[in-house]
Amino acid sequence: MDIEPDRVSGAESEKTDRSGNRMLEVLAVSFKLGLTSFGGPVAHLGYFREEYVKKRKWLDERSYAELVALCQFLPGPASSQVGIGIGMVRAGLGGGLLAWIGFTLPSIVLMIAFAFFLRAFDIGGSSWIHGLKIAAVAIVAQAVLGMGRSLAPDRARAAIAVLSACGVLLLQTAFSQIAVIAAAAIIGILLYRNKEAEQTPLELPIPISRKFAALCLALFFSLLILLPVLRFALPSDSLTLFDGFYRSGALVFGGGHVVLPLLEREVVPSGLVSAADFLAGYGAVQAVPGPLFTFASYLGAVAGGFQGALIATAAIFLPAFLLIAGTLPFWESLRRSPHVRGALSGVNAAVVGILLAALYDPVWTSAVRSSADFALAAILFLLLVFWKLPPWLVVAVGAAGGWLLGLL
């Protein structure tokens, strides 16, 4: 009988050690991916599959497909959410946090450094910085083309996309994008609720209770509602910054490039970031590994220094944590709902339209100012779409091209 407590203690110690080892393993693997994952969200998902599914076998193909489907459904940075979800599968909530830190930290450091470099040397008007803005034209145009093919493949969804673009461009208010997404969701339910359901994937082994998941979802919606109220009741630069970036992270469907118009509306009209610095940073973020949402780190640094960078980074990624932890335990039943599938079809089409609007304003209007600018944008689009060069290389070519145009 005296041996039993020691046995229990030993088992608990072994379990703790195993959990600690798993978390360190998650951090190490995700950090390696954060240093090497160039190419944007779609490429990230390929890197994840190779590392987590094929090489390490932390989850099987069906489970990985389940997780990717969930993160495509949720607003926020899809590739980051997949990484967080895999970390949670492997090592619980701590594993999810370390997976995010490892994958995101290299990009955060590079983007904050670029922001301070931009401010210290006053290079905002440099010709090579203008080349970065032109590269952003090609990159966003590629995103519109690729997403349009997959998310708006028929006449009805193409119409939703174009009407969404018109709505966002003509009704430039703080709530126009939310209204467009809501309207698209309703139309999607009406048109696509009877769409044939896909085969339900296997359930993911997530060590999160439904009660805790419900608390995460409650916190997500509470912050979404209360932060704007607190922002006006208790005026503060930090609170204003946190509210703007939290709302952007919470309401962007499609991730990556689609966050561009949301962030632009938060920081450019208010004067926190100039239009020139905004596009320069957007071009630069294409050349670094990791998630495109670290563009927020750059914007926060430009607007409020190192403290602003920390606030913006935490705010834009917090919804991703709350949503992935809050929905994983409920995802299997959600996917069976025809109304959810229909709403998602409409929202995805609207995402294409919102990005199309962003391609015109602010990307095109701020970057293409002459026939030479258009020629460089066309060449970069050719390299990106038809020659299949990686985005970071196209960005480098764009910076060099802008420098050469400045010599003419």
UniProtKB/TrEMBL annotation:
It is found in: Cell membrane. The keyword Amino-acid biosynthesis does not apply. NCBIfam families: 2A51. It holds the Pfam family Chromate_transp. The chain crosses the membrane at residues 26-48, 97-121, 127-147, 159-192, 212-233, 283-302, 309-331, 343-363, 375-405. It is a multi-pass membrane protein. Keywords: Cell membrane, Membrane, Transmembrane, Transmembrane helix. The gene is chrA. Belongs to the chromate ion transporter (CHR) (TC 2.A.51) family. This is Chromate transporter.
